[in-house]
Amino acid sequence: MELFDLSSQTDARIDTAVLVQLNIGGKRNTRDADEFIELVRSAGAETTALIQGTRHTPNARFFAGKGKAEEIKQAVIAHNADVVIFNHSLTPAQERNLEQLCECRVLDRTSLILDIFAQRARSHEGKLQVELAQLKHMSTRLIRGWTHLERQKGGIGMRGPGETQLETDRRLLNIRIKQIKKRLEKVGNQREQGRQSRQKAEIPTVSLVGYTNAGKSTLFNRITEASVYAADQLFATLDPTLRRVELSNQQSMILVDTVGFIRDLPHDLVVAFRATLQETAEADLILHVIDSNDDQRDMYRQQVNDVIHMLGAKNVPQVEVMNKIDLSKHTMRVDPKHAGTPSRVWLSAHTGEGVDELLEFLGKIFAKHVFEGTLTLPPSKSRLRAKLYADNAVINESTSEKGEYLLEVKIHQRRLDSLLNDENITLEQITDTPDQKIE
């Protein structure tokens, strides 16, 4: 079976597509059609027709009804289309029946998104993740095909009740899937080591998330002055990128740009990219980038939060970044957390308006997790004193009349707690003002 891969097309040959979107038992959402057309454009195909309709339940044979299936066939003939793309999930049998009827390739929403991901993957890890998702999807499609898949293999030593070609294909797929999982496990271990190193250095991690095309990569580039690929298309970013950002008051953070989310993101992709998306689950703070100019932003916000919950990151603190105020009537401002709603910063990543205010706001958030005060250490705790110096946490030092070390320190609270735990002492034992531990 050959995967539909638009990335292999030359510039002189662009696939033409007939799009199909049916309203199954609900109100028609015109924005779904707009997003569907944008997905097809992002894949590199040209839309020649959009066929819409309404059904209470999908047809078992064609997904669409018999009359609508005939309409699709006539549209393919009229426009000489190369492919029919459904904005729905199709069964292997439905794909096969539609291909026989229309005499061209037929793809569903999952296959379309997988193809876009295959085009955008740049890193070794990203390519492995996409291939894993594609192979899992392909394994469910092996029955779609051709009669040779059911024959016994011929040739000397291969006659008799041996494997069918279908069984061979499935076995080879499973072998390749195991190989990729093993490689991804190794990459995941390396990524975990990186996370542990950042945690040891007590540098907070901030993960950028949001609906695809909300402007995450543009904001990332604006903050970090990097050159991450950013474009007005869906899934412009696929591979995660990490950069260190210096904040005010001698603070730093690691900013992570992640893949955009989308409605009905294929489950195999979520599973395949779990190691990458784990950066979100392990983050100290989530910046949820939202297109403030989109009238569907509340729906998109909920869909992104659903994925965040699925990743086990629902308890990670969140700040909403209301982006693209240059296209809307909103003005730059910072709305603190209130009545159960997260803090919001209104800005434009494109023009830079409000970005400095965002960084200042983040600096204030992380400052609350910094201890700044005086520690009184007896001579027996010289090892703790040495560790504080090793972390460059000591601002000034003096000695008391009792020979105690009086250390003025500034250190991340989590790091200080870790050092004190190693020495089996509490903060109250070495400071007279425990309430000053939060700056």
Written account of the structure:
Helices cover 40% and strands 20% of the residues. The strands form three sheets. A seven-stranded mixed sheet has the order 6-7-5-8-9-11-10, sandwiched between helices. It has a four-stranded parallel sheet with strand order 2-1-3-4, sandwiched between helices. The chain is an alpha/beta fold and 439 residues long. It contains 14 helices and 14 strands. The protein has four domains: 6-117, Rossmann fold; 121-187; 203-367, Rossmann fold; 370-437, Alpha-Beta Plaits (2-Layer Sandwich). It is elongated, with a radius of gyration of 28 Å. Helix 1 crosses helix 4, helix 4 (109-120) packs antiparallel against helix 5 and helix 5 packs antiparallel against helix 6.
Helix percentage range = 40-55%
* CATH top level class name of the largest domain: Alpha Beta
Q: What is the fourth-level CATH superfamily of the largest domain?
A: P-loop containing nucleotide triphosphate hydrolases
First and last CA, distance: 61 Å
Number of helices: 14
Q: What's the architecture of the largest domain in CATH terms? A: 3-Layer(aba) Sandwich
- The CATH topology assignment of the largest domain is Rossmann fold
Instruction: Please give the number of β-strands.
Output: 14
Give the tally of structural domains.
4
Oligomer: single chain
Mean pLDDT: 79
- SSE order, as H and E? EHEHEHEHHHEHEEHHEHEEEHEHEEHH
The helix/strand class is alpha/beta
Query: Which segments are poorly predicted (pLDDT under 50) over 5 or more consecutive residues?
Result: 1-12, 144-152, 229-233, 434-439
How do the strands of the widest beta sheet line up side by side?
Answer: 6-7-5-8-9-11-10
- Gyration radius, in Å: 28 Å
How would you sum up the global shape? elongated
Please outline the major beta sheet: 7 strands, mixed
